[in-house]
């Protein structure tokens, strides 16, 4: 009997084919928008004669509602109805059912493919006999070539490229970029870059012939059932070369784990984490803020260099350049020439963002008192059941405070085989294009505690990032009050977003930012508050981080946003000093680059800035010593300085309002 040539590709929906927003009660699809790039993939596969199906866990949402949302988004017509299956993908069961549906009376066994972003789901598909692809852009090559996928490090030196557009060459290949490390940059030339990516072995050979230097990392097909992480060994970095002080040996010597480490660089260890294994098991000794990063698809890394415009052509509203104490911008005008709040606007922000309200919100989200009714939040860790309680409490708070003026909903994503939710509240725009985001992360951890058990032990995270949660909730009240008082003022859309799984490598914010980039959303400013509550010693400092070495343009626009925040400090929180701005004026880098959720947006080409307490050294050699929270990632993180957090929250809120209205 001749071999059957029928080919069937099954796709997950959310974060693979479309952006999905669920209603606050999780019983309906509020919005489903197809990604244009994914639609192109479906068209190409169908033209190749590939049958298309869906495998999706709909949860408590009725099947008819999912189908209607797919139809409205223009996706349903791509798929054979008998190949649309709904159910959990936490075992082989749904994949086995899909294999039976795909056979459909054909002689022999069809070639099956599952396309999904989660390594755990892909591992179950592999066990059921499927080929798998971690991204739609790799679907055709996996089905047709049957060539193994590899993690690659592509080394680019623009001087050796002799002026060739290396990004364009890579965009023409079936290659998914994950991470870019800038090795060095001269004032007169582009930076040398190490680009980490996933591609098949044939593509790697083609890149060899084009003159790229390509390192194959790990084994054949390792990207199928693993996720790639960058784990920063801050202890080793601080001890210096030649001192045997670090975490690699102690963390990976047992259980044949050494093979997971694919490379060590000045950034840290690149580790392939297998399905079923959590990055939680590698919380390094001496780790500082943002010590791990999950490397996920980031197509903007291959975008053509920008000419100063944002991702969809809109310039960030803070287009002036300021002369600051750190010297970030050398041209006039000075900070005093920045857009300013009116006296009424300043009074409204001060009235809504108070010491008492900041403290009250922190208490509610750290278990010091009930969040609502009899709901106590002892931990916001993603493995703890109270993480879901946090999601529900935030939705209730946003719904209650908005009086119907906000649209509160969840943005869903998959991580480590489980569904998690970011929480989003949208204040519609009126008269001005673009979107402004005010953000914090909602999860917590206490993994520095010896013997910590994430599923049962407390992780109050008052500073990290209960302080940011409180800041954003107070910003909601303030901006709603400003909007009511100035109803006729043209305004951009404002979103208040709480990201989940930040502690596992910026997972939730990356899913959200990539989602928006694929939809072409015009985000003009992202203001992230992460750890704004610890301040004990004098002098009283706080930090603004805007560094992004992969793109001079993105960094410049992020710096303009940081300068705007700095300018609002003098007006709305005069008891705060002028913030410490990173990167410094002496060529010093930004120690918080890719260490908080603002980085996820910079990675997609958006201007973004992190406001935080005095956590990092610098900027410059003459700065005072930092004041990192000694209770960072410990159960003892239970108390914040509410006056200090209040002042930073006011600054961020003022900058968000100016960005939305000026």
What's the CATH H-level homologous superfamily of the largest domain?
Zn peptidases
- CATH domain class name of the largest domain: Alpha Beta
Number of helices: 18
| Proportion of residues in β-strands | 15-25%
Q: Any idea what the radius of gyration is?
A: 24 Å
Largest sheet: 10 strands, mixed
Using the 3D structure, state the CATH architecture of the largest domain.
3-Layer(aba) Sandwich
Counted beta strands = 23
Name the average pLDDT.
91
| Total domain count | 3
Overall geometry: globular
Estimate the helix proportion, in percent: 25-40%
Question: What is the end-to-end distance?
Answer: 71 Å
Question: How would you write the strand order of the largest sheet?
Answer: 3-2-16-17-19-18-20-23-21-22
Structural class based on helices, strands and sheet pairing: alpha/beta
What's the CATH topology name of the largest domain? Aminopeptidase
Low-confidence stretches: 307-334
What can you see in these coordinates?
This protein has 662 residues and is of the alpha/beta class. It is built from 18 helices and 23 strands. The strands form four sheets. Strands 3-2-16-17-19-18-20-23-21-22 form a ten-stranded mixed beta sheet, sandwiched between helices. A five-stranded parallel beta sheet has the order 5-4-1-6-7, with helices on both faces. A four-stranded antiparallel beta sheet has the order 9-10-8-11. The relative contact order is 0.11. Pfam families: Peptidase_M28 (PF04389). It comes from Streptomyces durbertensis. Residues 422-645 form the Peptidase M28 domain. Residues 575-595 are annotated as: Disordered.
């Amino acid at each position: 009997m001749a071999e059957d040539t029928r080919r069937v590709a099954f796709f997950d929906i959310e974060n693979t084919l479309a952006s999905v927003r669920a209603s606050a009660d999780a019983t309906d699809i509020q919005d489903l928008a197809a990604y244009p790039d994914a639609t192109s993939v479906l068209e190409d596969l169908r033209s190749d004669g590939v049958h298309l199906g869906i495998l999706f866990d709909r949860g408590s949402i009725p099947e008819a509602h999912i189908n209607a949302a797919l139809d409205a988004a223009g996706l349903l017509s791509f798929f054979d109805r008998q190949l649309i299956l709904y159910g959990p993908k936490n075992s082989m069961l749904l994949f086995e059912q899909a294999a039976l549906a795909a056979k459909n009376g054909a002689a022999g066994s069809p070639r099956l493919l599952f396309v999904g972003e989660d390594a755990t789901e892909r591992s179950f598909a592999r066990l059921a006999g499927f080929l798998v692809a971690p991204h739609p852009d790799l679907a055709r090559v996996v089905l047709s070539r049957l060539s193994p996928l590899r993690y690659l490090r592509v080394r680019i030196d623009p001087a050796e490229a002799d002026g060739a557009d290396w990004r364009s060459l890579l965009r023409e290949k079936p290659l998914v970029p994950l991470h870019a490390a800038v090795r060095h940059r001269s004032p007169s030339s582009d930076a040398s870059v190490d680009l980490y990516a996933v591609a098949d072995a044939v593509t790697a050979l083609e890149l060899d012939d084009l003159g790229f230097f390509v390192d194959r990392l790990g084994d054949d097909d390792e990207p199928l059932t693993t996720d790639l992480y960058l784990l920063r060994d801050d202890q080793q970095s601080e001890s210096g070369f030649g001192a045997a002080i670090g975490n690699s040996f102690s963390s990976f010597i047992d259980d044949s784990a050494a093979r997971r480490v694919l490379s060590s660089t000045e950034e840290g260890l690149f580790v392939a984490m297998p399905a079923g294994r959590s990055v939680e098991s590698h919380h390094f000794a001496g780790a500082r803020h943002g010590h791990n990063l999950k490397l996920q698809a980031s197509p903007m890394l291959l975008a053509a260099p920008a000419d100063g415009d944002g991702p969809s052509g809109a310039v960030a509203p803070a287009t002036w350049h300021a002369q600051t104490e750190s010297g970030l911008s050398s041209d006039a005008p000075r900070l005093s020439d920045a857009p300013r709040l009116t006296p009424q606007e300043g009074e409204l922000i001060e009235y809504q963002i108070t010491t008492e309200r900041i403290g009250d919100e922190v208490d509610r989200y750290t278990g010091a008192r009930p969040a609502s009714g009899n709901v106590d939040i002892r931990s916001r860790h993603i493995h703890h059941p109270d993480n879901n309680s946090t999601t529900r409490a935030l939705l209730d708070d946003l719904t209650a405070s908005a009086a119907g003026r906000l649209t509160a909903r969840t943005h869903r994503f998959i991580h480590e085989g489980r569904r998690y939710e970011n929480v989003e509240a949208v204040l519609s725009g009126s008269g001005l294009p673009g979107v402004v985001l005010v953000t914090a992360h909602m999860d917590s951890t206490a993994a520095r505690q010896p013997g910590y058990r994430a599923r049962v032990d407390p992780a109050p995270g008052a500073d990290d990032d209960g302080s940011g949660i409180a800041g954003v909730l107070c910003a909601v009240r303030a901006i709603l009050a400003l909007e009511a008082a100035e109803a006729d003022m043209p305004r951009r859309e404002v979103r208040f977003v709480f990201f989940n799984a930040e502690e596992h490598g910026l997972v939730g914010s990356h899913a959200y930012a990539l989602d928006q980039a694929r939809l072409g959303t015009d985000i003009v400013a992202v203001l992230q508050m992460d750890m704004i509550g610890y301040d004990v010693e004098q002098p009283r400092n706080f930090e603004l981080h805007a560094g992004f070495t992969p793109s001079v343009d993105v960094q410049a626009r992020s710096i303009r946003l940081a300068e705007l925040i700095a300018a609002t400090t003098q007006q709305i929180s005069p008891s705060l000093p002028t913030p410490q701005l990173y990167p410094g004026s002496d060529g010093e880098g930004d120690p918080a680059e890719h260490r908080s959720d603002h980085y996820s947006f910079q990675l997609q080409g958006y201007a973004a800035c992190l406001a935080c307490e005095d956590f990092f050294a610098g900027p410059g050699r003459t700065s005072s010593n930092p004041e990192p929270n000694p209770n960072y990632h410990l159960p003892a993180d239970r108390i914040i300085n509410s006056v200090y957090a209040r002042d930073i929250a006011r600054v961020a809120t003022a900058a968000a309002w100016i960005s939305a209205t000026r």
